[in-house]
Amino acid sequence: MYAPYNIVEPTLEQKLVPDEIRGRVLGVLGMIAGVGFPVGTFLGGLLRDWIGASNTVFISGFFTITLGLVVFRNKSLRITPHNLN
């Protein structure tokens, strides 16, 4: 499911963020990702050591699916054609 992320995510950023603030928004997103990825990897490693690799992957998948369902159920969190312009 991750494969299309590198195509979809930048496309949505460019469609949703106005030109005049795009540089600042993408800069902030880059800073968050720059900190978030190593911290998440570190915490995932700790969790793997504590509960095992299979359980860690299961929990990660569970929360990913749960977040998807929350977005699916809450219309205000969805990207719709009327808010892409």
SSE inventory with pairings:
Layout: H1 5-16, H2 22-51, H3 53-73
Mean pLDDT: 85
The gross shape turns out to be extended
Q: Count of DSSP helices?
A: 3
Give the ordered list of helices and strands. HHH
Please compute the radius of gyration using only Cα atoms: 16 Å
What is the tally of beta strands? 0
Question: Which structural class best describes the helix and strand composition?
Answer: mainly alpha
N-to-C CA distance: 27 Å
Beta-strand residue fraction: under 5%
Low-confidence region ranges: none
Helix content: over 70%
Main sheet attributes: strand count, strand direction, barrel closure: none
Question: What can you see in these coordinates?
Answer:
The chain has 85 residues and is mainly alpha-helical. The protein contains three helices and no strands. The relative contact order is 0.07.
Observed structural traits:
extended; mainly alpha; 85 residues; single chain
Nutshell version of this structure?
The chain is mainly α and 85 residues long. It has three helices and no strands. It has helices spanning 5-16, 22-51, 53-73.
